[in-house]
## 1
Amino acid sequence: MGILSVLVAAIAGFAFGAIWYMTLSKPWIAATGIKVDEKGQPEGGSPLPYVLSFIAMILVAGMMRHTFALSGIDTFGKGLISGLGIGLFFISPWIMINNAYGMRPFKLTLIDGGYATFGCAIIGAVLMLF
């Protein structure tokens, strides 16, 4: 059941990311400075970022499940709040550091950090459903 919960949680986090970035695509593209074509789509698209993103979701969900088991996090609410904390206090600050040194706009940190925060909350909640 552990592998199934990790996969379902990873899919939920990945799906949330699709919704998050589709909703915020224009500000995200502006903040990243990615070149776009005449339709407003990023140039030179590749499936690689999507593949790597899904692998990353599996890794995050797997480590969160492991950490939750060791910490006694065993309810939906605890999973949701713990996931929120992981995204807000572990992942988002790291994103901020990387963006700051890369001289990226703070708006990019807010967009990507928001995804990390809410995506981890969703992963944490879904992990507790199994």
## 2
Amino acid sequence: MNWKSLFTPGANMSPDEVKSFMAEHQPDDYQLLDVRQPKEYEKGHIPGAMLIPVKELTERMGELDRNKPTFVY
């Protein structure tokens, strides 16, 4: 299964657009999903981001709220 098929199609947003969205909304209104490897996450990540490495994504989709916008990086 292609991991992209797990998400409802949405708009691609630039980093500046995501920053603006985050500034205008409460942290509980959206999800930040970091799909990198744990060592990359440990070196630095966006505060509040959830780590689910891309290889684990299909198995761990239940951890995400499908009703919230999700920003994946």
## 3
Amino acid sequence: MANLLTTVRLLLVVPVSWAFADPQLLKPELLMGFIFIAIATDYFDGKIARATHTESARGMLFDHGTDFLFVSSALAAMASVGAIHPLLPFLIIIAFSQYVLDSYFLFRQKQLRMSFLGRWNGIFYFAPLLCFSATRLEFMAALTSSLQEVTELLGRVLILSTMASIIDRGLAPFYGLSQK
């Protein structure tokens, strides 16, 4: 069941990303609904896996990989229309690659090795998607300018926090050396 929820989110990657790049593709309400579905499936897939004792390293990789594809594709589409700085999706690619590579190869774990900052970044990567999609809702027209500013600010803050996460993860192997 958990992997089914993750699969739903994976199936939303292309339509959501495309809709961010082309506002005529989906009605704004449908786009917002898809984002809420993505958030809900992200929230519940892990809970269901743990509750049903079906959690696994592969399931975690599938979940986090799907999250990565969803947010990086959608944010890249937003960058293509000038809604956020294009550095953010690029940094997310670096951060996720580093996350996978150091978990499996550097630390030789059999599953992903999460970090505090990386986890919170992963959650907050959905925030600019919500704000930007809200700018397209008719009933939010009076707040469009403010929502665009919030979207840009969130993008900048996430650039800084993603860079901090990359640096933190890069220094992590040295933490153990100084404690020995």
## 4
Amino acid sequence: MILLQLFLSFLKIGAFTFGGGYAMLPLIQAEVEARGWMGREELVNFVAVSESTPGPFAVNIATYVGAETGSLAGAACATLGVVLPSFVIIFIVAGCYDKFKSSRLVSGCMTGLRPAVVALIGAAVISVGKTVFLPYSGAGPLLGGAMIFLISLLLAFKKLHPIWVILISAALGLALGYVGIY
């Protein structure tokens, strides 16, 4: 039963989310928490791990949730569920796109979807940000986390490769932990 639940949950997430893995995060969070598969903090921890591992973000999270909930078979079901809608949609769109790409209807639809995707990503950022920053008690950890966030943001805007941003952030976290801030 859990395998079917994982497949259907991630099929729904994959089918109704536009904009990639980060746009899926609010749906994944709601589904995972509602079903009691894992807590918000555990999910946020994996978001950090998923960001620093190879592969698509949403696939990594689906695979992880599936593995934690239903072992190897669960990982396969969740992963298949999250990628199947995209595969089917892209297969259909690829066959029809040349015919409809100049359509005002298609253009209008895309114009409406882009801001919605940004809003979903923003909601995910706020949700994850609350989980990352609010548990800290004391100014040191909060300021340390804010400092790492701002440095990482600056490096990302300066177009530093994401691997370097992750490595520098990890080094800063280690340094702050070494001096006793964390």
